[in-house]
Amino acid sequence: MGKTKKNRNAKQGIDTMGVSTSEIAKEISKPQTAMPIYESNDDDTDWQTMLWEVTKNARKLYDGISTLCLSYTEKQDAIAEVAEITYDDPAMMIEHIKMMAKRLCQVPGFRAYCSKLGVGPDCVAQHIIFDGYAKVKAVIERGLEPVYGETIVLFSMPIVGYELE
User: Fold this and answer.
1) CB–CB of 2/54 below 8 Å?
2) pTM for this one?
3) Which of 126, 127, 143, 165 could form an SS bridge with 155, CB 3.0 to 4.6 Å?
4) Strand spans (E) along 31-72
């Protein structure tokens, strides 16, 4: 069963989220192999590779449009479409997002900054995961506020239907 790329009519543009062009150039020049972010006792970290593959391909459905311009339903549709192709059981994508979201919520100051701006940390984490490996890694290394700032107020609705404990 072949999938076709849907025509997404939206404004074109790329948002750098306040990152300097030299930082972007440095990030682009790095090898594109995503290292595991979620530390587990399992040797099985292939789920992370699948997660990043799904988020990358979901973003590609929108042809370089800034993820800030996408609604949570557009992100849901894109993830569902790509997960159906990538995963034997697309429901596992939700579990993988949940595991990575828990990791993001452990970043020092993450929950406090979300609370300060009145958004749920689980929702914010899901949108950061949609933004991909580089953004997740940046938040883990530098913190939520320096990477996203007040733009997290756009992330008030969950992409997948669950709430973190």
Assistant:
1) no
2) 0.72
3) 127
4) none
